[in-house]
Design a protein that fits this description.
Elements: H1 3-11, H2 16-32, E1 37-42, E2 47-52, E3 62-66, E4 71-75, E5 96-100, H3 109-121, E6 134-139
Parallel strand pairs: 1-6
Antiparallel strand pairs: 1-2, 2-3, 3-4, 4-5
Length: 150
């Protein structure tokens, strides 16, 4: 199965609303970072779609995490980011996240400023615009349900 089809099949495990929301957010991120490599991890807790300058997980700058009830934008190198509006959530020292209810939120000034700051402070910068690789990096044999309990 091609990587694009496999990613679509992972998204289809979620409710139609979460599938649509995640698909729109991932598409918006791919348009914003056309040179980024897109790394897909169908993990135990969530579907994670990372965006980085290479296929090295340690260099990824952002990740979209898809859960049964919400979608989050993770800043994977969040240490030192300027967040005067206190939008970042999480207690980790490195990764923090923002819940997204729409792909349009990626263009909100506070989130856009966080993203620009993350790009500027990244260990390895994104490549010049081009065609990034979509790679399925791992599929967990055991997963939590992708739809909320009824």
């Amino acid at each position: 199965m091609a990587a694009e089809e496999e990613l679509a099949s992972f998204l289809e495990k979620f409710t139609p609303e979460i599938c649509r929301l995640a698909g729109e957010i991932i598409a918006a991120m791919r348009r914003r970072y056309p040179g980024a490599d897109v790394l897909v991890y169908d993990n135990y807790n969530a579907l994670a779609v990372g965006f980085g300058p290479s296929q090295k997980t340690s260099e990824a700058i952002f990740s979209i995490a898809v859960y049964p009830r919400w979608v989050s934008l993770f800043f994977l190198q969040a240490r030192g980011l300027s967040d005067p509006a206190k939008r970042l959530k999480g207690t980790g020292n490195v990764a923090k996240h923002v819940l997204l209810g729409s792909a349009l939120e990626l263009d909100e000034p506070e989130i856009r400023a966080l993203m620009l700051d993350a790009e500027a402070k990244a260990k390895v910068p994104f490549r010049e615009p081009g065609v990034g690789v979509l790679a399925i990096k791992s599929i967990s044999a055991k997963q939590r349900p992708r739809r909320p309990a009824q």
